[in-house]
Amino acid sequence: MKQDSLKVAVIGAGLVGTLLAIYLKKAGHDVHVFDRSADIRKIEFSGRSINLAISTRGWKSLDDVQIGDQIREIAIPMDKRAIHKKDGTLAFQKYGMKGESIYSVSRGGLNRLMIDIAEEKGIHFHFEQKIWDVNLEEAIIHIGETERGDWTDLKFDKVFGTDGAFSRVRHRMQRQNLFDYSQVFLKLGYKELCIPANEDGTHKIDPNSFHIWPRSEFMLIALANEDGSFTCTLFMPFEGENSFEAINTEEKVKDFFMNNFPDTKELIPDLVADYFKNPTSSLITTHCYPWTFKDKVALLGDAAHAIVPFYGQGMNAGFEDISEMYRQMEKHGNDWETIFEEYQKIRKPNADAIAELSFRNFVEMGTNTADEKFLLQKKIEAKFTEKYPNKWLPLYDRVTFSLNPYIDALAIGDQQKNIMDEIMSIENIENIWDSEEIESMILSKLK
């Protein structure tokens, strides 16, 4: 259903804001994107990023506005995990049941490219513009140099808040009656490190793997970049024995990495410099509702539902918000109140589900991936899926390589976990896992 052309403001020029702007432009609107930061294309972007993994949901949103192929040019496929054990040995775990890949892409590189694409489509970007408040009833944004100084008022037909976990748009919505909001910080922080390219520009380790050094309470990950480097992220508690607080001298950093990640000695030559130069960042999960105000204002992405990064779904979930919003726009035309209401009703339960799944997945990445029993369980699931693809799809595949709702993935995943817990508790399972008896048992439990 065709819409009347409106003047709309998107607050936040990150990935979700920029893609939303492209969708709104496609629908015929006059789109203005505001961001408090400088134009990312003109500044050095490093030091506090976790590389992104684009999966099926993200690709669908990009392909639906015909920009997926441009993004694929800067993305590197990863078809497996590479588990770096403490003794220096390496184990590989394939991702999808059908050889699927997730795709590593630099957050800064992707953001720059998407802004370029959006500008070519006629979208207006306004950088270094601080939004201090929003008049929800009138869709007016208030811009100024300081929170207590003079403001300029800009009137729009609609305002979309895509300004991240600490959203100013959501902050204004929180001051309404009956607005629910909660936030939880993990007692775990993260720090960016870097594996540089070889002198000839090639990668030092396999670029088509998601590299994980799982060490239970802390872990290191690495994802490949186009230029031959890897963006590494160290996840570690803020306080305690092995923590950012405790590891606070050059010697302690060297000892910590030598004891826990010995195979990185030659990989991260600037370890100490990176460790002390790059900030220690926090990880937050937020929940709020409603995500919309009448027919005037809507939140998308982290502004509505920030999640921890352990399922690699933050950006993909934000992009899926946009797909759902656009689906409602096509369905309901100029009835924006219904568009907003249906959008939030459908997306809120799914956002809660992926938040829960992401929180749980830290345990899998940090501990289970190095556990022999876990690897056997994956082997049993893979064999069963191959034989009965309509009866069993592993949780990771449901989340990462399908478009099925996150809430369904969570429910089915819980059911499958209960079954596998029973199977894995069977005596001598490591010797009888490949038997008809085990296969029959799984089938009977599914009924």
TrEMBL record:
GO molecular function, one term: kynurenine 3-monooxygenase activity
Catalytic activity, EC: 1.14.13.9
Pathway(s) served: Cofactor biosynthesis; NAD(+) biosynthesis; quinolinate from L-kynurenine: step 1/3
Catalyzed reaction equations: L-kynurenine + NADPH + O2 + H(+) = 3-hydroxy-L-kynurenine + NADP(+) + H2O
Coiled coil: none
EC top class named in words: oxidoreductase
Function summary: Catalyzes the hydroxylation of L-kynurenine (L-Kyn) to form 3-hydroxy-L-kynurenine (L-3OHKyn). Required for synthesis of quinolinic acid.
Protein family: Belongs to the aromatic-ring hydroxylase family. KMO subfamily.
Protein name, per record: Kynurenine 3-monooxygenase
Gene of this entry: kmo
